[in-house]
Amino acid sequence: MELPIWFEVGSLVALVLILVADLLLILKRPHIPSTRESTMWVVFYVTLALIFAGLLWLFAGGEFAGQFVAGWLTEYSLSIDNLFVFVLIMSQFSVPRRYQQEVLMVGIIIALVLRGAFILAGAAIIEQFSWVFYIFGAFLIWTAWRQAFPSGDHDDDVKQENFVVRLLRRTIDISDHYDGAKVRTVVNGKKMFTPMIIVFAAIGVTDLLFAIDSIPAIFGITQSPFIVFTANLFALMGLRQLYFLLGDLLDRLRYLHYGIAFILAFIGVKLFFHAMHVNELPFINGGEHIEWAPEISTWMSLGVIVVSMIVATVASLVASRRERMAEPAAVPRTPVDAAEKVADEKGTPPTVDGP
Question: Which residues are 192's β-sheet partners?
Fold first, then answer.
């Protein structure tokens, strides 16, 4: 069974309209969303994704629906990992909290454009060269190792982007202060870019790096470009609200990267098995398909993804709770801390030069 073309086109149009409406809402009313507001939006987007999965089941069958849910959960878990870096970027460049929604929305749009390009390229490559599954599998296993045993931490990822910041500083005039959410401003009668342009550049570089990791992962679950793109779209649509909902909880998800690493390694192995099934390389099994390689079903993949994320999240929260119980009473906020909080809300000059 295949998806009707009207369903694919109608779905993409509806989702793009929702994304545009979300963007216009932010531009019209910039604010710091409350926990209740963020929760409602996250629940809305999750419910929307589940409804979409139900429609896929209705029009194309359970296999398509299962591929979408597995792909969506994989991209969602990888997107949560994005949030760690987004938090560091916002902090490094001192982005006022009330304008962080606009920054995140621009980042999401950049991510969608980049992932769309990667999806089209990936689909074309897979169509012509089946052996690319070997490369995707090896890449995901290497990525899983890097995720589980990083040589540095997320701070190092942000510091690597200082090259982009220095390049912008040398080529264009950038003011020392933000002017709301504007990218351009006027200082002493001279038109200049605001530090927001640097933030967008840092977010764009981050999105590019994560797109390189995430697209091979979802192609290990499904080879349908439509499902790949909609899974990415749904994963990114609720990311902005999830950023404000999780807040400090991100620091407590210390074992999340292990769960993500296990998922990536599992999909990498699955891609290797799939590559063996469709093998055409003459120096492997004489160019014949390797039939004895096990076939991992979509539903098994879905189960592994769900269990991995649950175990990583629960283990993180339990470890964090034990640490908090063992810590002494919190030190009261000092006047200096309060002043720094006020300065952050107003927008202080960003620190753009790293070590």
Answer: 185
